[in-house]
Specification:
CATH topology: Peptide Deformylase
Strand content: 25-35%
Helix content: 10-25%
Bound molecules: nickel (II) ion
Shape: globular
Number of helices: 4
CATH superfamily: Peptide deformylase
CATH class: Alpha Beta
């Protein structure tokens, strides 16, 4: 089922999300439907990452699907991952800038500086523990998505000048003027 993506201005995007109790049978059962729904929603929106708050749930879970980028890098052809309660516990000192966008901020694309590599601990969809080091594009995506779990959006990383430049676009989103090719849920209908 394709779920609507919450856009800028929705309070859930600014909340600190709650850890998932993966020992709960009820939680596990809920995820069985939620995970495929999130992948379907992400594919429909042509995105590479989606955090639960973006579909209105304040839980610490993100999904990543880099398969749309397989043309640039064949290693991404089957790159589909679920991160439950992810914890980025180490970041490289080296940083780089890369263009970013966000399904919750349609029409806004800006260059963001972030660490090149990160180490992340998380549970997968089978509740298996992982500890992995990510570099380059996958590291970029996981940092962007994990930010969402702390109520942070990529625009928060911009310089005050760049923030000023996009202020008009943000105001339009708050007014409900959302132009996207996918289902969205904005604070206000235009
Ligand atoms: Ni985003």
């Amino acid at each position: 089922m394709i779920l609507p993506i919450y856009t800028y201005g929705q309070p859930v995007l600014r909340k600190e999300a709650e850890p998932l109790d993966t020992t709960s049978a009820e939680v596990r059962q809920k995820l069985e439907q939620l995970i495929p729904d999130m992948f379907e929603t992400l594919a429909h929106a042509d995105g590479v990452g989606l955090a639960a708050p973006q579909i209105g749930l304040d839980i610490r879970m993100v999904i990543v699907d880099l398969s749309p980028c397989a043309e640039e890098d064949p290693a991404f052809a089957d790159y589909k991952k679920v991160y439950i309660n992810p914890d980025i516990y180490e970041e490289s000192e080296e940083e780089c800038s890369m263009g970013e966008g966000c399904l919750s901020l349609p029409g806004i694309h800006e260059s963001v500086k972030r660490p090149v590599s990160v180490k992340v601990r998380y549970l997968d969809e089978r509740f298996q523990e992982h500890d992995e080091e990510l570099t380059g594009f996958p590291a970029r995506v996981i940092q962007h998505e994990c930010d969402h779990l702390d109520g942070t959006m990529f625009i928060d990383h911009l310089s005050s000048l760049r923030k000023q430049m996009i202020r008009g676009k943000l105001t339009s989103l708050l007014k409900g003027k959302v132009h996207a090719d996918y289902k969205t849920k904005s604070v206000r209908k235009p």
